[in-house]
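ok trying again, last paste got cut off:
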Amino acid sequence: MDNAQDKTRQRLLEAAGEVFAEQGFRQATVRDICARAGANVAAVNYHFGDKEKLYSEVLRFAHGCAIEKYPPSLGLPPDAPAEKRLHAFVLSFLSRLLDDGRPAWHAKIMSREMAEPTGAMDMLVDEQIKPHWNCSALRRGRKRSASVPRASSGNASSITSANRSRGGYSRSASSG
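nice, full thing came through this time. structure:
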């Protein structure tokens, strides 16, 4: 791609991020995104293929910017004590959420995606998050604790039930 095409692609990513963050995936239109980017409507198809692929790329872009600035390990070696690794992870996560230095839409689109999930979040988790954590666990030779409940059933009842059985706090769906 030449420089003008790279700039158009970047403008589309930024404009799409803003529009998706404001309106959500379902309400956002390619026409609105292109108008904000100052690009021809056909540019989305040229650079990304369709609205869904543009949205996925926007999530990748926002996540990549956040991870580049605040990596989960914050530079700790893999053999650092567990407490330090946990501290780094939590600090990295909170820094990404509360960073005033990056565009507001980065955090907003991730929050919106968690509230109104699409298949793009599954893609992001599969491509960007699972490989990092699966490899990290394997490198350290640790296995998942049997006492940690799985949420793979698609609802939180298994977690709530496991919490209750261990004496943990849980809110019922009707109280929240």
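cool. The chain has one domain: 3-141. The chain has a mean pLDDT of 76.
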